[in-house]
């Protein structure tokens, strides 16, 4: 029998990786919040500030950690888009000094059962994204009442997702948002925890994943997503997903589904920002 097939599902505000059998992995660091769930057993995350063991662990951005498991167990991992509302909620409510938060007790019952059931779904099943949303709702129900992401940040994120430019152009983005370039750069980083440039790399990685699903080669993907070469593409994937492009592009090892629209416009941005004259109907047409 061959190796179990894993799944990677790209949604609007998060990416879900499901592996029926997951072994220990070397140290990696992600620029966004990640929820890691051991489907059938506890997992152990080792960081520079100590080790954390549990069934459901929330990892803060840019925390270098390795995963250790006693026996190969199913892994369910949800990586949040840095510009999403839930990411902003967690950045506000998770103390910065905590690299890892144990959510195991909160996850008991519905969250663990839902993530465990997802392991039984066919690889690449689009229902995995819906399962992840239910898990997030169960873990962070209070986030529903959290204010929407600052509209100018959402406009920049939507613009980059819609166009996937070769490089960022903070000056043009600032004009689009009606503020100075320095103000926008500071605002985006303070709200999301990442720079505009680093967020664009996340967007490019998402696009690359969707291209893998359509059968494109590594060379075609690197060129279409404006990575300088395959080595740059590989480094980005290791940082954002902890996986190599060669692994993700192999349908015998992983199946990919993509339910993201690529851009979510804010119908009445001025209402959220307090600037009645600032209304962006479709960032894709302006950036």
The separation of the N and C termini measures 49 Å
CATH class group of the largest domain: Mainly Beta
CATH topology of the largest domain: Jelly Rolls
CATH superfamily of the largest domain: Jelly Rolls
Low-confidence stretches: 263-287
What does this structure look like?
There is one protein chain. With 287 residues, this protein is α+β, with helices and mostly antiparallel strands. It has two domains: 6-145, Jelly Rolls (Sandwich), CATH 2.60.120; 151-273, Homeodomain-like (Arc Repressor Mutant, subunit A). Helix content is 40%, strand content 20%. It has twelve helices and eleven strands. The chain has helices at residues 85-93, 104-107, 110-118, 127-139, 151-163, 170-177, 181-192, 196-213, 218-224, 230-241, 245-248, 269-273; strands at 6-10, 14-22, 25-28, 34-38, 43-47, 50-54, 56-59, 65-68, 73-80, 100-102, 254-258. The protein has a seven-stranded mixed β-sheet with strand order 10-7-4-9-2-1-11, sandwiched between helices. Strands 3-8-5-6 form a four-stranded antiparallel β-sheet, with no helix packed on it. Strand 5 and strand 6 (50-54) form a beta hairpin. Helix 3 packs antiparallel against helix 4. The longest helix has 18 residues, at 196-213. It is globular and about 50 Å long. 44% of the residues are buried. Mean pLDDT is 82; it is low at 263-287. InterPro entries: AraC_XylS_family_regulators, Homeodomain-like_sf, HTH_AraC. Residues 154-251 form the HTH araC/xylS-type domain.
């Amino acid at each position: 029998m061959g190796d179990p097939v894993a799944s990677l599902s790209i949604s609007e505000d998060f990416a879900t990786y499901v592996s029926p059998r997951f072994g220990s992995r070397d140290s990696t660091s992600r620029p966004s919040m990640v929820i890691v769930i051991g489907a059938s057993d506890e997992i152990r995350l080792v960081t520079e500030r100590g080790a954390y063991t549990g069934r459901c662990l929330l990892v803060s951005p840019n925390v270098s950690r390795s995963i250790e498991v006693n026996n190969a167990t199913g892994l369910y991992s949800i990586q949040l888009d840095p510009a999403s509302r839930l990411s902003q909620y967690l950045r506000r409510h998770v103390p910065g000094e905590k690299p890892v938060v144990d959510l195991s007790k909160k996850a008991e019952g519905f969250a663990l059962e839902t993530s465990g059931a997802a392991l039984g779904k066919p690889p690449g099943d689009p229902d995995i994204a819906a399962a992840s949303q239910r898990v997030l709702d169960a873990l962070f129900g209070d986030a529903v009442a959290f204010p929407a992401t600052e509209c100018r940040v959402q406009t920049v994120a939507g613009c980059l997702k819609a166009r996937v430019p070769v490089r960022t152009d903070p000056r043009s983005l600032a004009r689009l948002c009606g503020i100075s370039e320095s103000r926008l750069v500071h605002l985006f980083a303070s709200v999301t925890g990442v720079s505009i440039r680093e967020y664009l790399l996340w967007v490019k990685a998402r696009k690359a994943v969707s291209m893998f699903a359509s059968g494109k080669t590594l060379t075609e993907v690197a060129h279409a997503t404006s990575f300088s070469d395959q080595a740059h593409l590989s480094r980005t994937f290791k940082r954002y997903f902890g996986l190599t492009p060669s692994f993700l592009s192999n349908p015998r090892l992983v199946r990919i589904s993509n339910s993201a629209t690529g851009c979510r416009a804010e119908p009445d941005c001025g209402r959220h920002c307090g600037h009645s004259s600032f209304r962006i109907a479709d960032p894709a047409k302006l950036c």
